[in-house]
Amino acid sequence: MTTDRRTSKENAPTEPPDDEMVWIPGGAYTAGSAEFYPEERPPRRVRVEGFWMDAHHVTNEQFGEFVDETGYTTLAERPPNPEDYPGVPSEDLITGSAVFQKPKRPVGPQNPNQWWKYVSGADWRHPLGPDSSIDDLSDHPVVHVAYEDAVAYAEWAGKTLPTEAQWERAARGGLDAKPFVWGDDHTVDGKLMANTWQGHFPYENTCLDGYDRTSPVGAFPANEFGLFDMAGNAWQWTRDWYHDDPTAGTSTSSCCGPTTPRGVSEEQSVDPRDPTGIPRKVLKGGSHLCAPNYCFRYRPAARYPEPVDTSTSHVGFRCIVEP
User: Fold this and answer.
1) φ, ψ (nearest 5 deg) of residue 135
2) 1 pLDDT more than 80
3) Are 301 and 294 a contacting pair, CB within 8 Å?
4) H/E/C letters for each residue in the chain?
């Protein structure tokens, strides 16, 4: 894939770690938004130092190289540990992952169990279930990766996952306080700028963007930093623990805001309503399932909690390198 190199390299401290990374210059920006979901509030000034970032999601081809070299087995391919799920019948502890399945009739958006199914045999090689494959999806984002899978790949590649602050700085591309990674408007000259859902979610996708599920990385224009798919396609893991208040655990130390804030602890990320007590990380970027009428989160300020033991058909990741 040819990367759009619109980002200046004159301030980069070194050569890129590999040809698929771009330099994200350090600086202050306005994180969050007061216009959409409560967990994005309040808008706040944040500063990050410069870093290198993958121009696109880690692809099925790249993840396959990692697995071939290391023999790694993803969480979705391993039987769940009964000790982690006390009280769950053993027959329910099977390998698999969550797959989006479009309802065949109009349904309301209140009950996700109407379109999310835990499918035995679904994993990164078999994104829709055991009879599916990635034979024609080598340049699509790898999905069905849990948090520990993303971390394992990053460590193998000599990289790490971004913090939420780093990710949002990169996604905004220097366009401060804009609702979308490309600017103010939902479309640019009538053109859709990301792989998202068009129509009535979850039962009608008109696919005006050309895709019903994931798309090849680089299928849509890059942002001003030269990064592809910082909105839509597949959600992206960050290494920050989730809290409904994005300022929790962070103190402002200067007029320009904290530098690369990290937020709360692992224990504070647990949803008190969740009997399993599984901690949660922050997802960013939205996916091909995001729509204005449901999960309008293909915006840089948007954030979502994901349990670390969960993998799905619409969550992937990309990596960074800090100088």
Assistant:
1) -55, -35
2) no
3) no
4) CCCCCCCCCCCCCCCCCCCCEEEECCEEEEECCCCCCHHHCCCEEEEECCEEEECCCCEHHHHHHHHHHHCCCCHHHCCCCHHHCCCCCHHHCCCCEEEECCCCCCCCCCCHHHCEEEECCCECCECCCCCCCCCCCCCCECCCCCHHHHHHHHHHCCCECCCHHHHHHHHHCCCCCCCECCECCCCECCECCCECCCCCCCCCCCCCCCCCCCCCCCCCCCCCCCCCCCCECCEEEEEEECCCCCCCCCCCCCCCCCECCCCCCCHHHCCCCCCCCCCEEEEECCCCCCECCECCCCCCCCCEEEECCCCECCEECCCEECC
pLDDT in tens, 190-246: 999 999 999 999 999 999 999 999 999 999 999 999 999 999 999 999 999 999 999
Strand partners, 52: 23, 321
Per-residue confidence band for 3, with pLDDT thresholds at 50, 70 and 90: very low
Ranking 8-12, 157-161, 192-196, 301-305 by mean pLDDT, the lowest is 8-12
Alpha-carbon distance 227 to 294, whole Å? 25
Strand bridging mode 304-307 / 315-316: unpaired
For residue 25, say if its preceding peptide bond is cis, omega within 30 degrees of 0.
Answer: no
In this prediction the pTM is 0.93
**Higher-scoring residue by pLDDT: 254, 7:** 254
What is the rounded CA–CA span in Å between residue 3 and residue 315?
22
> What CA–CA distance (Å, rounded) separates 305 from 291?
18
**Beta carbons within 8 Å of 112's beta carbon, 6+ residues apart:** none
Residue range 106-159, pLDDT digits in tens: 998 889 999 999 999 999 999 999 999 999 999 999 999 999 999 999 999 999
Angle between helix 60-70 and 147-156 (nearest 10): 70
